[in-house]
Amino acid sequence: MLAWAIFALFQRVGLIKTSFGILENNAMQSVASCAGYMVGGGTVAAIPAMMMLTGQELEPLQMFGWISSIALLGVVMAIPMKQQMINIEQLRFPSGIAAAETLRALHGGEEGRRQGRLLGRGAIVGTIVAFAREARASWVPWNLPESLPFALGAPLLLLPRAAQEWVRAKLSAGTLALLDAQPRLRGRPLSDYTFSLDTSIILVAAGMIMGWRPAWSMMLGAAVNYLVLVPEVYARGIVDDRLGYKYIVQWSVWFGSAMMLTSGLVAFAFQWRSVVNAMKSVAGAFGSRVKSAEEEKEVPMLWFVVGVAICGPLVVALEYLVFGIKPWLGVVSVILSFFIAIVACRVTGETDTTPSGALGKITQVTFGVLDPGNTTTNLMTANATGGVGLHAADLLTDLKSGFILKADPRQQFWAQLLGVLAGSLFVVPAWALLVEGPEDFGTKWPVPAAQSWKGVAVMLAEGISNLHPTAQACIAIGGGLGIVMVLAEKYIPAVRPYMPSAAGLGLGFTTPGSNTISMFIGAAIALYLTRKDPKAEEAIIPASSGALAGESLSAVFIRLLGVAGLFGR
Predict the structure, then answer these.
(1) How far apart are CA 335 and CA 347, in angstroms?
(2) pLDDT confidence of 518, banded at 50, 70, 90?
(3) Is 207 helix (H, G, I), strand (E, B) or coil?
(4) Which residues are paired to 184 by β-bridges?
């Protein structure tokens, strides 16, 4: 939708002469999706987890080579799976179908213009919020605070500083004390437990897209964690007196990680038929049967062989040179990544959900046995295998759209490779701009996924017996509850509408309360609008996407201007 809106604007103002066709738009969404997943392949999970555990920082060229090699291996791994799972079996890949239908709507006249307008309006709102929050300079008269406490006087913080000072000067000391007072737990304000209102609309928009069940599940997990359990362990001296997310999550991650690990693995185990079928189907792609004329136009299997021959050794070499991982373990990780990719693609094609979390944990457990005690090996081999599976599954989703729209598979394959390059060229400098060092994680950047990866790595390296007894209890209770919840959904389906999502509940223990509140608010707004008008979702998705993209891109752009000296904190 962003590509459609941008090129429509370019054409309207005369920057381009020819119209932006549906197949060009499809190629563009392939590039953009692949570029976006350069972050999802471990940049916000395994790498921060490694940095928090070891303090090791990656040089820009190291990061560029690492994330690019994983993504390229995922691209070539998708070649035999595409021919078998999309052309022959025609697995659904629901998001790919939805993308194709969206493209048809966008290029079908008025519907495209309507969604483009909604996207643009959302982007404008997001840009305004980003400027108000991030553009801090002497010539900017007012800035939006990053968060608001739960206090009667919180609205005053939305006023310009001079207005705040004028209002406060007019009020008595007793009134000010009443306005500034926050609800307290164990003598500490709620904001110390990460419960506040974030003024960013990024996570509100994300909540509107993500849906009601995961949002209220996360909210339940956060409420139990930050409002019930953490105050209790704080009173007993188990959590650092400084509180805040960085110190709380060092304890609460054990419950959330255990729940997400066991629930993901048990749910994945129920898909064993998909695993078996995936292995059989990809083996069939290498057979000698006669191919149809359409199949002859596909990316040749020779490209797969050459690509793996180039990218596989590259991943092994980088594992050794950058992270000190033994070469034979690197070879094992590449071999394992092929099977991880097969399973990830198959499950995504059938369910529209990529089990990247569970698959990454499988790798962590595997290398916890092969190289016990080495957290770097544990994390970065899992980064490689999970990243390959994630990229391969995402690419097949894109290729499903191309298959429906009759796009040229080879052209789309090259578009994916361009997406790897574009994503890496953006992610690396953006990382350098936004992340100053390991100390940023848990404070400036919460990285809840990384907290989970870190927790599993520590557990496998040090053993559960070295943890505080309450953390050990969290592992047992969280892990057991994750198993019970998946089994209940499987064998008592009638309870599912009333049960929280195990993944959402676990995330509530590893995500700051302020983030969870924002997503919950967004999901609640979307639920209200869709119940009032079932067609409202057609407007919610583009408007939310525009707001999310507008604030995200504008915030990064403002920080770049800050580096140039135009803005500064």
Answers:
(1) 19
(2) very high
(3) helix
(4) 189
Q: Is 49 helix (H, G, I), strand (E, B) or coil?
A: helix
* Vertex 541 angle, CA 540 and 544, to 5°: 75
- Measured distance CA(153)–CA(209) in Å, rounded: 31
CA–CA dist 501, 517 (Å, integer):
17
Q: What are the phi and psi torsion angles at 441 (to 5°)? A: -80, 130
Q: At 197, phi and psi to the nearest 5? A: -100, 115
In terms of Cα–Cα distance, which of 402, 431, 437, 452 is closest to 249?
452
What's the rounded mean pLDDT across residues 392-411? 87
DSSP 289-347: PPPPHHHHTSPPHHHHHHHHHHHHHHHHHHHHHHH---HHHHHHHHHHHHHHHHHHHHH
pLDDT at 315 over 90: yes
Residue 384's nearest CA partner among 155, 136, 127, 69 is 69
Contact call for residues 408 and 21 (beta carbons, < 8 A): no
Provide the 10 A C-beta neighbour count for residue 233: 18
Alpha helices by DSSP H, 355-447: 356-370, 375-405, 409-434
Two tokens, residue 428: 């690396």
**pLDDT one-digit tens code per residue, 54-110:** 888 888 899 999 999 999 999 888 887 777 778 777 777 867 877 787 787 778 767
Structure tokens at 82: 């595409």
- CA pair distance 205, 530, nearest whole angstrom: 15
Give CA–CA dist 441/50, Å, rounded. 11
3-class DSSP state for residue 445? strand
C-alpha pair distances (Å), 134 with each of 99, 332, 445, 548? 33, 45, 15, 15
Closest CA to 255 of 472, 445, 463: 472
In whole angstroms, what is the distance from residue 348 CA to residue 92 CA?
Answer: 9
Q: Is the confidence at residue 441, as pLDDT, over 90?
A: no
CA distance 512 to 396: 33
Which of 7-11, 171-175, 177-181, 189-193 is predicted most confidently? 189-193
With b meaning 16 or more CB within 10 Å and e meaning fewer, what string describes 464-478? eeebeebbeebbeeb
Token pair 């953390």: residue: 471
Q: Could you give the CA distance from residue 356 to residue 340 in angstroms, rounded to a whole number?
A: 9
Distances (CA, A) of 80 to 89, 278, 281: 13, 11, 9
Which residue intervals of 435-512 are DSSP H helices? 448-462, 469-491, 502-508
How far is the C-alpha of 568 from the C-alpha of 134, rounded, in Å?
Answer: 9
CA distance 109 to 107: 6
Q: How far apart are CA 57 and CA 542, in angstroms?
A: 37
Q: Which two tokens stand for residue 485?
A: 């919840």
